[in-house]
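Weekly structure sync, notes
Attendees: PL, DS, HV (note-taker this week)

Item 1: Mini-circle uncharacterized 19.1 kDa protein
DS walked through the input record. Source organism listed as Actinoallomurus iriomotensis. Sequence as pasted into the shared doc:
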Amino acid sequence: MARVSDRPERWSQANVYPDMWVDPDDDPRDNAGASPDGEPATLQDYLTNYRHTLLMKCEGLDAEQLARRSVPPSTMSLLGLLRHLAEVERDWRGWVLPGGPPPKLYGDGDFEGAVADQAVVDAAYADLAREQAATDAVLAEHPDLGVRVGKDAIAVRELLVHRIEEYARHCGHADLLRECIDGRVGQ
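Item 1 (cont.): predicted structure, written out as tokens:
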């Protein structure tokens, strides 16, 4: 059991707003211009921002830190989240394409196989980027968000909203995991 004195001191890289992860000028999520026009662009913007947030929560950490299960007894780690979201992207794509879901990426489980090995870390980042791009490409073929796709006739809008929800929920987990690893905080 960790003692209070064993916990890292809380800190932020931001100077302008200490409750932020980075200063506004350094934030890749900050859209300096007007918000996107239309529902598809707005939903994609939210998804992109949550994807950036997850990657930002992982940056600067080594393989051991990324694999650390810093909120016991949970098996969740930042590396596990990267792997899990790659699997989620793959699974959601299976809702659109004929033939059912594609085979699982990780036979060892998203979180159980998230071990402190740089090759595992590199593979997780590559898997996530590849699966995101593949799912984005499949959904881009359906610009009408009301169209129903796949064997269950699910609306494209629902698939986009579910992906946003999945990332948003796990970005909250990433906040806590990162703070427990090195004390860094910020939204």
